[in-house]
Write a structure and sequence with these properties.
This protein is of the alpha+beta class. The chain is about 40% helix and about 10% strand. A hairpin with a 3-residue loop joins β3 and β4. It is globular, with a radius of gyration of 21 Å.
């Protein structure tokens, strides 16, 4: 572990970022050049003391998971991420760890989206990060582990995952998920994470095997869809996708037609994350009010 070089690299990368680069407010009295240490620590989900010790050349060797979090917080490129791992005494990230590194280009766009549900997914349907509105709509999928991180796996092994779609749209959505997995599986080949997921699904779901044998290959099926929220009811959305160059990750942004009922329902999502409603109560979009930025 090259403590001095690691500390210098972290300091320089922190100084190169501005709050607006990571979706933070600069505030009116800011004397720090770049991000504060506590801001980097919060973005990386670690204690400020731990991060400070790394910059002061006295911290313990970070784990791969900790380094992956730091790489995301500091918006490192793939080359910079690998350099960080080597400085900390690790080899190149394992495929599982490398797959969780979010493309900085997508993350910069997501950081600026606070009025529409948005999330970044891998080509296996794993949610890497999502904004508050996406969490209010889909639930928090970033804390899931193992195969359950994949939306494809959950779709064919957890029936409750389908409730967000109308019954008449579920077959089409299942086919779309499998077609996307096949598109990812082809280039990855045998022994890849995609291949492991396909093998696991073959063992656990006859329905998956039936759909897989259709040999449909597509990154996207539908750009317009209806989602069902347990409190707001049906919401019609248009889904825009921004892929990385290698198509291994995608930023999805959901919007609704201006002044439509679904548009008003989306505005309520920023409130639903902080307010409680009686079980089973359906919220009328007529009660929508402008989203308070403090609730985002």
């Amino acid at each position: 572990m090259e403590r001095a070089t690691l500390a210098d690299f972290l300091r320089r990368r922190r100084a190169a970022l501005r709050p607006e680069d990571v979706g933070l407010s600069a505030g009116v009295r800011r004397r720090t050049v770049g991000l504060r240490r506590e801001e980097v620590a919060a973005l990386a989900v670690m204690s400020t003391d731990y991060y400070t010790r790394l910059e002061q050349r006295r911290g313990p060797q970070p784990s791969e998971q900790m380094l992956a979090s730091l790489a995301r917080a500091l918006r490192l490129t793939t080359d910079e991420r690998d350099y960080l791992f080597r400085l900390a005494g690790h080899g190149a990230p394992t495929p599982a760890v490398a797959a969780t590194h979010i493309a900085p280009t997508l993350l910069r766009v997501l950081d600026r989206l606070d009025d529409s549900p948005a999330l970044i997914l891998t080509d296996l349907g794993e949610t890497l990060v999502q904004n508050g509105m996406a969490a209010a709509l889909f639930g928090d999928a970033t804390e899931l582990t193992g195969p359950a991180r994949s939306a494809v796996y959950r779709w064919f092994t957890r029936p409750e995952e389908r409730l967000i779609y109308p019954a008449e749209d579920r077959a089409r959505q299942g086919r779309a998920l499998v077609a996307g997995l096949r598109a990812a599986h082809g280039p990855a080949g045998a022994g890849s994470r995609a291949d492991e997921l396909v093998r696991l699904l073959h063992r656990e779901s006859e329905e998956f095997t039936e759909v897989w044998e259709r040999h449909e290959v597509a990154r996207r099926f539908e750009d317009h869809k209806t989602l069902i929220h347990p409190r707001l009811g049906p919401i019609e959305v248009d889904c825009q996708a921004l892929f990385t160059e290698d198509r291994s990750q995608v930023l999805l942004v959901l919007t609704a037609a201006p002044r439509s009922e679904s548009f008003e329902k989306l505005r309520l999502l920023s409130v639903l994350g902080t307010e409680r409603f009686p079980d089973g109560q359906m919220i009328s979009s007529g009660t929508a009010r402008p989203a308070d930025p403090a609730l985002r």
